[in-house]
Design a protein that fits this description.
Largest sheet: 2 strands, antiparallel
Shape: globular
Order of helices and strands: EEHHHEEHHHHHHHHHHHH
CATH class of one domain: Mainly Alpha
Strand order of the largest sheet: 1-2
CATH architecture of one domain: Orthogonal Bundle
Helix content: 55-70%
Number of strands: 4
Number of helices: 15
CATH topology of one domain: Farnesyl Diphosphate Synthase
Distance between the termini: 12 Å
Oligomer: single chain
Radius of gyration: 20 Å
Structural class: mainly alpha
Length: 347
């Protein structure tokens, strides 16, 4: 367990790395672990039921490597944001279902683009059924999510279509930026599309369902959380890749510039060296993995991953009052603790 205070002494959370338990000195009531697990199981069961209903000669879900939840971050966020806004649990379940399906569809497409062979420590779908069928499966599951969103409301479904567009634009911007040195502004545009957009949809939909006119506030919460969450993923890729279910230094090997690397490039002390070696690696027809490891280890050893983590923590600290001012304060406290915990994770 890792303990750190991100706020005042009267607002201190101890958050377990699993993200399943929160202790707070100012919160006497919270969901039990059992209730949380039951809600996540409902999401998984619903995904299992829907995907199992697909004809096996189209897609045999039971024999596939499709992983429906993973860390279930978007499901947890859906329920916690819904609780903070007093959304009916069944509605939050629908939002969780849609967000997990869309997220997994995006991962299917990402793995096809990257020709990845491992996802969450297991073989990717594309490595087992082929890239063509994996792309089509992503398309099919995306349509399933749209159908479920329509069941919530036409407005929510319309916003999900817009959200997927932003996600695809973010992915295309990332693809166009590969093997190039980009600045922080471009990085944030990529993350806003690829990562934050789905959290934004969950938050805005939850506020819409409760007729809460706080869209600007929940958008800010979602953008900051999504960016912080992605920064931590960037850090894990460098610091603890052997335990994260990912290939080591995957981002650099795929020509992606992430927040720790941007901070390294902005430091005058090593900027020229880092830029020179990155440009050398990016320009190689056959990539020298030893050079990639050298760059990544310097980023870690010189404290840029630590600086990136502080940046993520600051993003969460800056929305503390926004989160705690949500209508259901006790649940808002839990939502904020959840965000803090994700910023402290190392896998």
């Amino acid at each position: 367990m890792r303990e750190k205070s991100l706020a005042s002494a009267s607002f201190r959370f101890i958050y377990y790395s699993t993200g399943k338990m929160i202790k707070s000195t100012i919160m006497d009531q919270s969901e039990t672990k059992n209730k949380k697990d039951i809600r996540l199981l409902r999401v998984k069961d619903e995904i299992d039921k829907v995907l199992s209903s697909i004809e096996p000669d189209v897609f045999d879900y039971k024999k596939s490597q499709y992983l429906p939840l993973g860390k279930a971050i978007r499901s947890r966020f859906s329920f916690l944001m819904g609780d903070s806004l007093a959304v009916q649990e069944d509605k939050s379940l629908d939002l969780a279902f849609c967000s997990e399906i869309v997220h997994n569809a995006s991962l299917l497409h990402d793995d096809c683009v990257d020709e990845a062979i491992v996802r969450r420590g297991k073989p990717t779908v594309n490595s087992t059924i082929g890239i063509n069928r994996a792309i089509l499966l992503g398309d099919l599951t995306m349509v399933i999510a749209f159908n479920r969103a329509e069941r919530i409301s036409s407005e929510v479904a319309s916003q999900l279509v817009f959200t997927v567009r932003k996600m695809v634009e973010g992915a295309m911007l990332e693809e166009n930026s590969k093997w190039k040195i980009i600045d922080e502004k471009t990085y944030k545009r990529i993350v806003s599309g690829k990562t934050s957009a789905l959290f934004r949809w969950i938050s805005v939909s939850s506020a819409f369902l409760q007729k809460e006119r706080i869209f600007e506030k929940v958008v800010k919460i979602s953008e900051n959380f999504g960016l912080a969450f992605q920064i931590i993923d960037d850090i894990i890729d460098i610091e603890n890749c052997s335990d994260s279910g990912k290939e080591c230094f995957k981002d650099i090997l795929e020509g992606k510039i992430t927040m720790p690397t941007i901070l390294a490039l902005n430091d005058e002390k090593f900027a020229d060296l880092n830029r020179s070696e990155l440009n050398e690696f990016f320009s190689q027809p056959l990539k020298d993995h030893a050079l990639a490891m050298k760059i990544a280890l310097r980023i870690k050893d010189c404290g840029y991953t630590m600086s990136a983590r502080k940046k993520a923590e600051t993003l969460i600290e800056s929305i503390r009052e926004d989160v705690l001012s949500l209508p259901q304060r006790n649940h808002a406290l839990e939502l904020y603790g959840f965000m803090i915990g994700l910023c402290q994770r190392n896998r």
